[in-house]
UniProtKB/TrEMBL annotation:
Belongs to the G-protein coupled receptor 3 family. InterPro entries: ANF_lig-bd_rcpt (IPR001828), GPCR_3 (IPR000337), GPCR_3_C (IPR017978), GPCR_3_Ca_sens_rcpt-rel (IPR000068), GPCR_3_CS (IPR017979), GPCR_3_vmron_rcpt_2 (IPR004073), Peripla_BP_I (IPR028082). This is G-protein coupled receptors family 3 profile domain-containing protein. The lineage of its organism: Eukaryota, Metazoa, Chordata, Craniata, Vertebrata. The chain crosses the membrane at residues 482-508, 520-541, 553-577, 597-616, 644-665, 677-697, 709-732. SUPFAM superfamilies: Periplasmic binding protein-like I. Keywords: Cell membrane, G-protein coupled receptor, Glycoprotein, Membrane, Receptor, Signal, Transducer, Transmembrane, Transmembrane helix. The keyword Phosphoprotein does not apply.
């Protein structure tokens, strides 16, 4: 348990007895030496440099208290003789170890759902799949200290170790292993019980065999001492290791073969038993009574041993069975999608269903169809009828949670300041007395009892608890949001209506009402209105360098083209009635060619303004952080405000000129009311754009863009409706008025 109270990382599954998976891959360092090494690092002033990196954890879950586990999901190679010339296949899957890991996860999830344990807190886990002493050491150091390159007294964390499997009596030495705990009895009690068992059957002449490590040596020594007290004599004692030299195994076999005792007490792991009985079977040494330690006496793996018939009738003690409600359902709900980063779960799934998942390289198996379920699979993993050591894992997790839950008695002047706050010392009081002050706006603290808060980077903002800097939300008018969708639809509808009107005019292009006022200007005006509607779309979407330059220039040029056409139509109306006066030849100076030239010249001036604007200081994307502190407004900066207002000013000048001329022609006869309609359209235009300026200046963020789009659309619709809808009404619904006689008026009706 971390003395600071931040993390608890019990190192599950590090075995110290003969059953340990630590030495399974051929490395023989025992756990007491491992723990002693860790303690030396922790207690002394030595510096330990990390050699290599641990594999990432197989299963992880965040929580207020993180519990660590180390298990060995793969436990060696069966029926394979290493040649040391090619890499061996993947080692055998150990379903029991995987069941241990899933039991740990099940217990943690069960505790998190229990409001009576650790209320308002959650437990998490980091579970490693490690094989071999060096890999287990790396995983243990990663759990305790992370991946620090150099570990010394400044960054070495004190953590408790809690084992469900380690029974070595040596671990009861509190001076050497002060932070080791377990949920399984010491071998001292088992050794004494085995001595009494042998005495009970009056076997007073026995042989003794053990592992050549602390588990076996200490366990068999305790047995022999207790056996001597019970009056049992030991004929011989031999020790060997599965990975040791062959001559040691030969000595053991020779002792058994030529001994007179018929009872063997074996204090070792199932791997040593497997090797030994296989050799005895090959030499036809039978008729022995085996008494074993709990490390192998119930081990299912021995049923496939070549000499398993020699073990029939073996006696020993084992951990009592237990039931864990809900565990079987938890096991049968296993899916690869629950642990997408776990390669072991993928391998287990493929081996169980003899298929291959989508992104693996194995093409010799059929693809997994996604409907596989362990609900109908019977294996050691899903079997919960023999929960022995598994129950110890379950109890270990609950022991940790209850220990954390009971850490309530405290004697402090001030409670610890959680992340998001910092210490503020109280005046004229001890340094242990302080206030917890929330971090200022824009600052965070991400550790407990922080003395200061620090500012988030410019693109980040604190979360609600002010313990993490998160990316600021970026705001712009998007096509995906409701306002963007509505404006897009209105723009497209305007463009389609304009196109439809142009189609009507083209179909009735030979009629008097279309020809009366220069049909070329009418079609050019309709074309420019279509562009006005479509250019509004450039204001929607994420601003880029090109879209920022395009949106204002396209708007300015298309609008000037539009107003120039309206101005040309206004001049045509005035000139047409002026031409009816005697001796007037004004239309000679403002014919179709001059009209086209005037529109071209007026538009060219705006093009020059836009080119100068884009050349000198063009618009560009800009992250505006002035309106909101917690989010960024992505907008188009004007670049040169002079260029922007010059574009708008020129549009306003042409619109004012058009309005004045149309106003002067307002008293023309009603039958020819083109000037009156132009006046109405200019009134709408000026009303919209006069209201636009204060709204544009005061609207924040994406609403500024929405106001600009609304102004463009409104003025475009105003021109379209006022100038063209009345004509369409006459063309389509009042064709009797679409005659030359109805349109022509006499000059005597004109008032100036």
């Amino acid at each position: 348990m971390d003395v600071s109270g931040h993390l608890i990382r019990p190192t599950e599954g590090i075995k110290t007895d003969a059953r340990a998976e630590v030495g399974l891959c051929g490395e023989g360092m025992s756990l007491p030496r491992l723990l002693l090494l860790v303690l030396l690092i922790r207690r002394g002033a030595l510096v330990c440099r990390l050699q290599g990196k641990a594999q990432p954890p197989e299963f992880t879950k965040a929580g207020d208290f993180v519990t660590g586990g180390i298990f060995t999901f793969r436990t060696g190679y069966r029926d394979i003789v290493p040649t040391f010339q090619t890499l061996p296949d993947r080692p055998t899957i150990n379903l029991r170890e995987f069941q241990f890991a899933q039991t740990m996860i099940f217990a943690i999830e069960e505790i998190n759902q229990n409001p009576a344990i650790l209320p308002n807190h959650t437990m998490g886990y980091k579970i490693y799949n490690s094989c071999g002493m060096s890999n287990i050491i790396r995983s243990a150091l990663d759990l305790v200290n992370g991946q620090e390159e150099i570990i010394d007294e400044r960054n070495c964390t004190n953590a408790d170790n809690l084992s469900h499997f380690a029974t070595c009596a040596c671990l009861s030495n509190r001076e050497v292993f002060p932070s080791f705990f377990r949920t399984i009895p010491s071998d001292l009690y088992q050794s004494r019980a085995l001595a009494k068992l042998v005495k009970h059957f009056r076997w007073t002449w026995v042989g003794a065999i053990s592992n050549k490590n602390e588990y076996g040596i200490n366990g068999i020594a305790a047995f022999m001492k207790a056996a001597q007290e019970e009056g049992v004599c030991i004929e011989y004692y031999r020790a060997f290791e599965q990975t040791g030299p062959l001559h040691e195994l030969a000595k053991v076999v020779e002792s058994v073969k030529y001994s007179t005792s018929k009872v063997i007490v074996a204090f070792m792991s199932h791997r040593e038993v497997d090797v030994l009985v296989t050799e005895l079977f090959k030499q036809n040494i039978t008729g022995l009574q085996w008494v074993g330690s709990d490390a192998w006496i119930t081990e299912d793996a021995l049923t496939s041993s070549e000499g398993n018939s020699l073990l029939v009738g073996s006696l020993g003690f084992t951990v009592s069975k237990a039931q864990i409600p809900g565990l079987e359902e938890h096991m049968r709900r296993l899916r690869p999608s629950q642990f997408p980063d776990s390669q072991f779960v993928r391998d287990l799934w493929e081996d169980t269903f003899d298929c291959v998942l989508n992104d693996t390289a194995n093409t010799q198996r059929k693809p997994c169809d996604g409907f596989g379920s362990v609900q109908t699979v019977e294996s050691y993993f899903t079997t919960v009828s023999e929960l022995r050591f598994t129950n110890n894992v379950y109890k270990s997790v609950y022991a940790v949670s209850h220990a954390l839950h009971n850490l309530v008695p405290v004697s402090v002047c001030s409670e610890s300041c959680p992340p998001g706050k910092h210490k503020a010392l109280q005046k004229r009081k001890h340094i242990c007395c302080y206030d917890c002050v929330p971090c200022a706006e824009g600052e965070i603290s991400n550790i407990t009892d922080s003395m200061d808060c620090f500012k988030c980077p410019i693109d980040y903002w604190p979360n609600a608890r002010r313990d993490v800097c998160i990316l600021k939300e970026i705001e712009f008018l998007s096509y995906a949001e409701l306002m963007g969708i509505v404006l897009t639809c209105i723009c497209l509808i305007g463009a389609m209506v304009t196109t439809a009107i142009a189609s009507v005019f083209f179909h009735f292009r030979e009629t008097p009402i279309v020809r009366a006022n220069n049909s070329e200007l009418s079609f050019l005006l309709l074309f420019s209105l279509t562009l006005c509607f479509l250019c509004s779309l450039t204001f929607i979407g994420r601003p880029t360098q090109w879209s920022c330059m395009l949106r204002h220039t396209a708007f300015g040029i298309t609008f000037v083209l539009c107003i120039s056409c309206v101005l040309g139509k206004t001049l045509v109306v005035l000139m047409a009635f002026r031409a009816t006066l005697p001796a007037s030849n004004v239309m000679k100076w403002f014919g179709p060619a001059q009209q086209r030239l005037s529109v071209l010249c007026l538009t060219f001036i705006q093009v020059v303004i836009c080119i100068l604007w884009l050349t000198i200081n063009p618009p560009f994307p800009y992250k505006n952080m002035n309106y909101y502190k917690e989010k960024i407004i992505l907008e188009c900066a004007l670049g040169s405000p002079v260029g922007f207002w010059a574009v708008l000013g020129y549009i306003g000048f042409l619109a004012m000129l058009c309005f004045v001329l149309a106003f002067l022609a307002r008293k023309l006869p009603d039958n020819f009311n083109e000037a009156k309609f132009i006046t109405f359209s200019m009134l709408i235009f000026w009303a919209v754009w006069i209201a636009f300026i204060p709204a544009y200046v005061s609207s924040p963020g994406k609403f500024t863009v929405a106001v600009e789009i609304f102004a463009i659309i409104s003025s475009s619709y105003g021109l379209l409706i006022c100038i063209f809808i009345p004509k369409c009404y006459v063309i389509l619904l009042r064709p009797e008025q679409n005659t030359k006689s109805h349109i022509m008026v006499r000059t005597k009706d004109i008032q100036y």
